[in-house]
Amino acid sequence: MVLVLLSLSVVLTLILYILSRSITDVAVSSRQEEAVRAFSAAEAGIERALVTGADYTGIEIGNAQYTTTTTDFASGSYEFPFLSPISSGDTVTVWFVSHDENGNLICDATHPCFTGDTIEICWGNYQADPNSPNTPAIEASVYYYEPDEPTLIKVGRAAIDPYAGRRDTNSFDPPQEVSCDIGGQPYAFHKTINFNIDLNVNPAGLQFAQLKMFYNSDTPHIIGVRVTGDTLPSQGKQIDSSGVAGDSNRRVVVYQGWPEFTFASNALISPFGIIQ
Predict the structure, then answer these.
(1) For residue 94, which of 23, 201, 209, 268 is within the disulfide window of CB 3.0 to 4.6 Å?
(2) What are the boundaries of each domain within the chain?
(3) Degrees (nearest 5) of the Cα angle 32, 38, 43?
(4) How far is residue 194's CA from residue 121's CA, in Å, rounded to a whole number?
């Protein structure tokens, strides 16, 4: 009789264990499915906001829903880091003019434009070796117009190379001695450029700056900027989308920069004219 009871106890224990495992597996599977649906809903919100530019709240999609908000990126700031490292030959754009709701360039009371006098360029992964041939150099091309010639776009350029072994050949300038920090992110190199003194550029006609990185073909490097004398206009849109399915919440954030200017027939086409 005792052996029968012991056998029944063992069998019952095994059954309870199997049932508990099954319940746990079902719960985990259900949470995973909810997480996938929540993430898919958040992505759907991003795609819709990219097309329409509008905000959405509690939009149902299947067994999930999404909420999106769109804000201006870096608007009213004195500094910002670019969100992705860049490789040799890549460029990023710093806008000094504002964009209206349709993406057109504009400067007015509700769309203020930058008229400060300096820009500090910070670049290079922290502790990058300035004595390495793979150390990144930077070229800054600042596009502007003279106030009395608003349809004639001009460009001023500065080039900075931390690697002294190249400067005799490329004639780049050296960076400043100390590193810099933007938003808690340290950078290996930096250079402060005064538009008027260093580039003979009138700050009243600033349009945008293109920053191009050289020589770091093996390793992408980070880059950021800081300005003085005025705050920057919007550098693009930040779209924040939250997806909810059951008890799962997922968030996706996308940054959409303003469209780059295009080149055609060796000329830069802009709303203000053609830059040869």
Answers:
(1) 209
(2) 74-234
(3) 125
(4) 11
* Distance in angstroms (rounded) separating the CA atoms of residues 140 and 121: 9
Q: Which residues contact 206 (CB under 8 A, 6 or more apart)?
A: 96, 97, 113, 114, 115, 142, 143, 144, 195
What does the CA dihedral 231, 234, 236, 238 come to, rounded to 10 degrees?
A: 90
Q: What is the mean pLDDT of the chain?
A: 85
* Cα–chain center distance at 235: 9
The pLDDT value given to residue 103: 82
- Using CA atoms of 264, 267, 268, 272 in order, give the dihedral in degrees to the nearest 10: -120
- pLDDT beyond 90 at 101: no
39 phi/psi in degrees, rounded to 5: -65, -40
- Beta strand pairing call for 91-95 and 98-99: unpaired
Tens of pLDDT, residues 136-193:
999 999 999 988 888 889 999 999 999 999 999 999 999 998 879 998 999 999 999 9
pLDDT attached to residue 134: 93
